[in-house]
Amino acid sequence: MMKTFSLPFGKSTQTVSLDEAHVLYDLHGNHVDAVADEQAAIRQALRHPIGSAPLKDVVQAGDTVAIVVSDITRLVHTAQMLPIIVGELNQAGVKDDQITVVTAQGTHRAHTPEEDAIVCGADMVKRVKIVSHDCRDASQLTKIGTTTYGNDVYLNSHVVQADKVILTGAVSFHPMAGFGGGRKAVLPGVASYETIMRNHAMALTETFGGGCNPKCETSLLEDNPLHDDMKQAAALLNPCFLVNTVFSADGDLYEVVGGHWYEAWKKGCDDLLHIASVPIQDLADITIASAGGYPKDMNLYQSMKAPMNAVFATKPGGTMILTLDCPDIKEPAIFTDWFFRSDMDAFEKDLRADFSIPAFVAFKSHCIFRSLKEAYVVTRPENFDIIRHSGLIPAATLEEAWEKAQKNLPENYKVTIMGHAAATFPVRK
């Protein structure tokens, strides 16, 4: 019996008719209820924390406090969290002029005043000092120790010199560190460029030619050196408190965790894995996946979250079809300049010499595609030349891609559908 499946594609959909006998899984993230009262959830996290006394009991009058927040590239509800955190500090006797907000730029550029207002909120910009971290400015950095991996940890001096440090951010899946949020506010958030590069280089194997380090993968924390190095850096700083948001596959706020900088974050990781992962028993010969439509498939950089999850549902040497609208396919240029490279040896050599997250995402994406027999991209016709240049096969419709792909499938092939692959993590049981 034939069944029609509809996958998001930009602001519309693409459809394909499949024989149900060949469909292995139709995977979706788990539906969960969104937080009804966000302010109440934040206060709950501050006043009834995990592994810690309440925030107002952790700080005391006269303390200088640094609050580390995510930058403009990660709108994780900082503007909702910050006023409540500052309010709790005020109640504990910490005045506004004793509080410094440090935006965790990592290697990103500094904020504009307008971006500070977007991230932190207009009222906070008027009330507290806000500083953009600059990983390359040695005058802003202080060494606090060295990890067991030999990584000298230089951090923003505003953070190091504060009596108390509060970390904020969001728990998310991360293709190198296992999960985002938590200790990432420290490293890479407010670390030096050299400290960041030493840490991120662990996402590659120790020797040239080995490519991506299999220990540094989505959802993996145990025996993940990149994560462990971040954790050690955060432990050297020893923040007094953490507040992190957790979002559902639909982008709704699922919960707010607060308390000890590692224990509270780890609960957020466990909860995210519970709501966003889906169990599977078998791998498919072909996976048909969408990033989830607009804005998740605005460009190739954002869209690559789809194959990075879909690969966990696909047999090695299998086939993948991606529906990616990509109206801004060449943005950001820092990613596409790397993504369009075809010489993988030169790619890896240059990545090791000048590591960056966009470059690594491009490299890892190519490694995924090269592990497949074929990879099709359903996209706009004007994107076809770019897709071909990337070594992928373009198609105007999902039906067209399916017609071509099935010619090279085994007789008893199995198909898995992932309509929101960027937010759905298959876990083989």
TrEMBL record:
Which positions fall inside the Lactate racemase C-terminal domain? 283-419
Q: Name one Pfam family in it.
A: Lar_N
Molecular function (Gene Ontology), one example: lactate racemase activity
Cite the LarA-like N-terminal domain residue spans from the record: 9-204
Query: Can you tell which superkingdom this protein's organism belongs to?
Result: Bacteria
The name of this protein is Nickel-dependent lactate racemase
Organism field: Megasphaera elsdenii
